[in-house]
Amino acid sequence: MDNVTLKRTIHVSFVPDEEIGGTEGMAAFVKSKEFKQLNVGFALDEGGANVADAFSLAYGEKSRWGMRIHCSGQPGHGSLLLDNTAGEKVMKILDRFYDLREQEKRKLDNDLSLNFGDVTAINLTVVEGGVQDNVIPSEFVLSFDCRIAITVDLEEFEKTLNKWCEEAGEGVWIEYESKQPQIPVTKLDETNPFWMAFKKSFDYMNLELQPLINPGASDVRYLRAIGIPALGFSPINRTPILAHAHNEYLNKNVFLRGIDIYYKIIPALANVDQISNQ
Question: What parts of the sequence cross the membrane (predicted)?
Answer without folding.
Answer: none
